[in-house]
Fold this sequence. Notes:
The chain is 26% helix and 28% strand.
Amino acid sequence: MRRSGAILRDCLLYLADKVKPGVSTKKLDEFAYNYITSHDSKPSFLGYGGFPGTICASIDEVVVHGFPSARRLKEGEILSLDCGLIYQGWQADAARTLAVGEISEEKRRLVEVTKQSFFEGVKQFKAGGRLGDISHAVQTYCESRGYGVVRSMVGHGIGREMHEDPSVPNFGKAGHGPKLEVGMVLAIEPMINMGTWQTLEDGWKCETLDGKPSAHYENTVALTERGAEILTL
Ligand code: MG
Ligand code: MG
């Protein structure tokens, strides 16, 4: 999983460099497909439950699961790029929210708080703790700063399959939930809204109820004897 994680990390760095005004998300999807298949890996999203792309490309108020399309990115938007791959049977899953050109100060802060909340969660990923410790850390970090924590989508265990038990919500009670043990690998992925936590879902669609922007930051994280190791960073 270290190997699959490293390939995905590099793929996301490669894609981040291509994100600018005028580029279509379909084009980014092609770059991702070519990158992954030329690194002895398989895109895990493509065809998953019928999903049509190698990446999820979710712009502004779209929380997750945006379909790559011919629509071109515009200056000032934020793009959440979520991608997954399989290398020698092992999965990796990670997401970044990227600025398209210059973005507003409030969007920049949303992206920054979302990213930092992931690290607050990782601090709690330790042997002897409970899964709820991670959830609680993410939730309190974001809510105390006035942001909405998405409830309808959660993180997950990952290994041979992209989505394994346990679910990893970004909200919950410290001291509750499954015990955290060495050998666990989790996709920890805060999805954080500038406004209300509520979302609208319809099939693949997942958008904020109030139309305000949402950010996503995800890594595949292993719990080792030496502590949490982020495999996709
Ligand atoms: Mg993902
Ligand atoms: Mg995930």
